[in-house]
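Co-fold these.
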Amino acid sequence: MAKAENVIEIKNLSKIYNAGEDIAVHALSDVNLAVKRSEFLAIMGPSGSGKSTFMNILGFLDSPTLGKYIIDGIDGSSLNNDQKADIRNQKIGFIFQGFNLLARTSALENVELPLFYRGTVSSKQMREKAAELLKLVGLGGREHHIPSRLSGGEQQRVAIARSLINDPAIILADEPTGNLDTKTTNDIMNLFRKLNDELGITIIIVTHEPEVADFTKRKIVFRDGKLIQDVLTKKKKNAGYTRELYK
Amino acid sequence: MKLSISIHSAITTLKKNRTRSTLTSIGIVIGVASVIMMVGFGYSAKIVVRQKVFSFGENAVVVQGSPKEFITAKDSKYLRDNFYEIKYASLNTTEKNIRISKGSKVASTLLNAVENDFFQIQGWKLKYGSYFSREQMDNLENVVIVGDTIRKNFIGFTDPVGQEIIIDGKPFRIIGSLEPRGLTFTQTDFDDFVAMPYMTFHSRIKNEKIRTELFVGAVDEQSLGKAINILKSYFRQKYNQTADEKDDFVILTNDENLEIAEYISLTLSSLLIGIASISLIVGGIGIMNIMLVSVSERTREIGIRMAIGARNRDILMQFIIESVTLCVLGGITGILLGYLIYFIIILMLGWQFYFSLLSIIISFSFACFVGIFFGYYPAKKAAKLNPIDALRYE
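Predicted complex below.
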């Protein structure tokens, strides 16, 4: 089956909240965006700029008031709650600032969880696939550790493995390094780059840190609910930054 | 999400909160255990009541003959010997308030003038000695078998065989004494009586003709009706009754006495089961309370699950299964605990143990029902959460 070239297509998308009588807050107004397969994108902007709202809509956690959102060829506007849950399950891999792993649940079980909800894979296959992904993110041999026994960086690696398990169309990472120190931030960002470079996985990262955004290949910036800037990341600075860190 | 996976994750979650899960299900444990105990006690009490209510004996009836012509040993022998359905037959003359003494001890007791079958019909067992022998009966010997109360009051806690006792002013030799049976439902003492051979009584104590009953024991419960029919036609023939005449005799059965007693025990156990059910409902509310706490505590977990693809239904099922699992585990523990306590108390009272599969099935299903009923509201609340709010919840 030929897949659409654009994994994400957003046209004239707006989100309007009613804050009391006759007061409408435009969290997003008239946003247009196309993301190709295998892009590595940073969404930037100060708080209140609408980037979180945009992220929630991208992740089918929230619905737009107006406009069109097509993900991997599927029009998101007419989906019911169950279909949205299925999209979240199969098309999107979430990564959060706070890792959001299930407490007192082993790394392996955390990674398997999306497959449980998909319900089409045998438990043996789940186990194997989860173990394989944990190896990919560099946590081979730590399958049975519970989150509280792992460092922040390791927990985020578990979350990355979990986001990959259903072979999603996009990975959505909301401030994935917000809780990590500089060294770990770089490790995680390099892991994202490796996934993007070597496996061609489409990754969208929301961040307010320019250093983090520099790892990506394209930056879009929000301000007051509008998409005001859409640029390719300067290769030179990006490369230099990385080299500097690894001196 | 498949059901097996939901069950697995429910059990995993409950294990992680072991103490809380245990405490939560205690309400159900107590509720189910009390239902099991009460049903058990109800049945056991019914059995005890059956034994304690005045009865002619198991599968027994009593014929009260016409005053025109008394029932005789010939009748009892004929009935006993010629019909398969009639296993036992014994004449019985009852004499209330007969004077009995030994040395300085004097009492008034009940006297039954009987044949040996009387003991079989009423289910008496010998503790000491023997029943009446052929010679003793034929020779009209002054022999007597005593109830346990008479033995204890007049002889003491020893073997009374061979001892002499004065009945109605005449010396009688004790040849046997019976196992005790205790008090009746109305607190009369079963064991306060003496029995002597029918003919001995009529020649030594009461010479005039007095009304005699015939105790008849059927071979089993199914044959009882047939035995009654046999008795009817036998006595109609004996009294030369024509087809349109009413019976000139009365056949008494145990039914009425038992019905009243069973009604009382049924009412009593229904009341107790009702009270026990209240504790199940209280237990259910406890489960609902904890499930509500659990839902708000785990809001973030619900958000994570929704973000990675759990449908509302999956979340609903997860929480319902958790509460049902609590109730089912509580139910199983309750059934075991209930039977254990019931068994111990029954053992101490010396009552008969009664195993009821029905009460297990009912209390188990009721526990499941409580789990679903009281788990639904918290589960619905969890499933209705908005994923964004749930994820942001601290």
